[in-house]
Every structure is written in C-alpha cells, then in structure tokens.
Specification:
By secondary structure, the protein is α+β, with helices and mostly antiparallel strands. Helices cover 63% and strands 10% of the residues. The radius of gyration is 26 Å and the shape is elongated. The two termini are 42 Å apart.
Length: 321
Amino acid sequence: MNKYLHIDGKKLWLSTKDYIIITLAISLYGLGFSAFILPEKVVIGGVTGLGTIVYFLTGKSWAIGATQYAINLALLAVAWHIVGKQFVMKTIYGATVLSVVVTIFPPLFTEPLIPGQGFMNVCIGAIISGISLGLIFTHNGSTGGTDIVAAIVAKKTNITVGRTMLYVDFCIISSSFFIFHQVATVVYGFMVLFITTYVVDLIINTNRQAVQFIIISPKWERIATAVNHHARRGVTVMDGMGWYTRQPIKMLLIVCRKIESITIFRIIKSIDPTAFITQANVNGVYGQGFDELKFKQDIKLREQLEVEAQEAIAAGELGHS
C-alpha cells in the first residue's frame, strides 16, 4: 500500500511541478509581450496577434485577453469532437492563464522598457517569448490558439503541424499592414515569429541532443561494463583491425544524450586515459531509451514490404523469424 502511495505522490509532484513551471513561463511570456513587443505596435502570430489587432482597433487593453479566450473556447469546442478531450483539457489551463496575463500586464507598460530602440525591443521580446513557450511545451503545456488549429488540420489532412502554424501566423501578421499601413511593423512581426520559433526549437531540442562515441582501448571490456553500470547506456562492441599494426582490435560504439557525455568521458579517463576517442553530434536518435518515431505509417508501403518478405521467405532468402 505504501508503495502505491509513493508512486501516486511522485506523479502528483511531477504534475504539480509542471503546472508551476507552465504558470511561471506564461507570466514570463506576458512580460516579454507586454513590455517589449506591444508598445512597439507590432502584431505577432497566433490568437494573441488577433487579440492585438482588436486592441489596436478598439483601444481597450482588455480586448487582447478577451478576444484570445473567446477564440480559444470556440476552437476548443471544435477540437473536442475532432482531436479528443485529453488535448482540450490540457489546453484549457494554459489558455486561461495566458488570457489573464495578457489582460493584466499591458496597462502596466504604456511605453517600451528600452525607449527609442524598436529593433532591440522586438528582439528581446521575441527571445523571452521563445524561452517561455519552449518551457511550456517541454512541460507538456499548451497555450491554445494556432496549436489547436494545427492539431485539427493535422488530424484531418497530411499537412504538418509546423506548416499549418506558419500559414496561420503569416496571415495574421500580414493583416497588420491594413491597420498601420507600415511595412516596418509587418517586418517586425515576422522577426518575432522567426526568432520565437528558433528559440522554441532550441529550448525543446536541448534535452534531445545526442552524441555518438567510438572508443578504441585495450581495456574495452572494463569501459563497456562501467558505461552499462554507471552511465546506464548501452554499448555495441565492433570488430576492427589496425592497419598499421595489422592487429585485431575492439571498438565501442556508444550513443547518449549530450548532457551525459561528461559522465562517459570521466569513465573512460578513470579506466584508460590513453584511449582513442571520437565524439560526433547526432541529429536524431530513435529507439529504446531515446525518442519515439512519430511518422505516419504508409499503409501501401507496409503491405508491399510484407508481400516482398513473404515472397523472400518462400524463395528461401529469409528466415521465418
């Protein structure tokens, strides 16, 4: 009984920690948007951008949060039947907090924090927004808006989520030209979009970056065992031959997260400081202990491969396993 209470308590703490970080990140997003971007009269993407347009047309600061929340509720009502209630419930909290934040913060910043530096304000605001959204996404949060549209489109078509968000944001930002009739505000809006997207990807992918080691050492058995036990990573042993010595050698292939590479180096140095080591960055690692492949299956290709496999088995070219 205590074991189950311990597991439930751990899950509860992880969930609570996620909500705390999501709340702080949304507050940081509101600060970056309200103190740096909005005072420069720049329209960004998403439903926040639509709320900004309504704000500039009406002059009411509460219009940003109200418009944003109304659009999110309408989109969530549609998403409930298409995407599912789990996605909707997860999004409601983030959308609610964000609407409150962008209603409270704008009246506090009638002027940009760095007067007379429009380019600098836009860049700082975009970086803060990117960091905030990256933290929200890495803790399983969502702020709604174009996330909902992208999820609906991805469910019904083959258009990717990223492409859908880009199309929607492009239309919203471009519409700001008809309000201010200034190309500069449109350019600044696209700057915010691209900088925010880049920073979000940077934050999300930081924990996913992987490295690959190839290690050659006469003490390869001790190194492999130590990596298994202390770094908790798998090791592949490969046969090779040193062409200069004409002697057979063993090579270790290790793939780990970038943040774990220091542990690997320490293990190697402790066992064999003279070991030959190469380290290379890996763009993607999928499988046990790493990321999961999320590509949609090609049904026709799978059926074709199954037919070819059966034909090969019948011809004796493949084993029955």
